[in-house]
Amino acid sequence: xxxxxxxDRIVELPGAHILQTEEWASIKQTVGWQCIPLFWExxxxxxxxxxxxxxxxxxxxxxxPCISIxxxxxxxxxxxxxxxxxLIVIDEIEKKARQLGxxxxxxxxxxxxxxxxxxxxSEIKNDVGIQIEKELEQRGWKKxxxxxxxxxxxxxxLSGTEDDWLKRMKQKARYNLxxxxxxxxxxxxxxxxxxxxxxxMYAQTASRDGFIIREExxxxxxxxxxxxxxxxxxxxxxxxxxxxxxxxxxxxxxxxWYLYGMSSPRHREKMPNYLLQWEAMRLAKAxxxxxxxxxxxxxxxxxxxxxxxVFRFKEGLxxxxxxxxxxxxxxxxxxxxxxxxxxxxxxxxxxxxxxxxKLQREVS
Length: 364
Known about the structure:
The chain is of the alpha+beta class.
């Protein structure tokens, strides 16, 4: 990261995100990405907007040309309601992408389009977000077919007292929380030597729930780097001294994120995940966070969606649905962009199958 003060410069920006920190950029550099920080100031030389632009060069085919793509995870960060500012930022991102010779650039800033479940009484649409979508389309941006981060999420409000939190929970969630406490579930902060055990539980969770994860070394590096930077903690839920669930809680600015969760099939009837999330909420509040992003909600709010069951758990905790516009692609070289869209999904499918086989061997 060229700017050693990057985190301090962005922490107060609207939408300041853990995936835009210097720690995250450093992690991505170890797996082949180059980081280019972009920064905008207002007329008073104060931070107005920022984006960590990640660049990667790849060869689509064995003997094909080397191409470069760009990605801004959960960015750019700015006040999206400021029309003048957002047009300046998007303008400069497009120019930078052309200067770097990228075939396309992807961004998934937190452009909120609505809150609440679609079609429900609680739904509130965001006219600014809808207008921004129109602006992007007019500029030649396309809604991405490859969503890297979750498009929708569920966010807990950490304002008020713990009694206020309980009131915002659904009755069943409150019951399960008390049940976990009554049944002797204990939650504590893990130390760095226990990260390997948490990864093994994470691998079990991935195999059981059917999602693909990376190799152990990647997660250990991510978790350790953020914990050592005082931007994360690992929590473990135990029953009679046996670890049965865990999560990695991240902090930056006034927000906390639940990016990784893991659980064992043992003692599930004692509801350890409810006490685990409760203690995560308390820890986030103690760190000065005002919101706790539970990271992920369905694209379609239907029982058939793979995220629906997890979402119902988050909803029970009192979380509010936040729907964003999702990822957008700006094609600069239409030919290579088309080839990329055709080839990469097939390659990723093969790699996921290989990783799934390895994962099953890891947990067996």
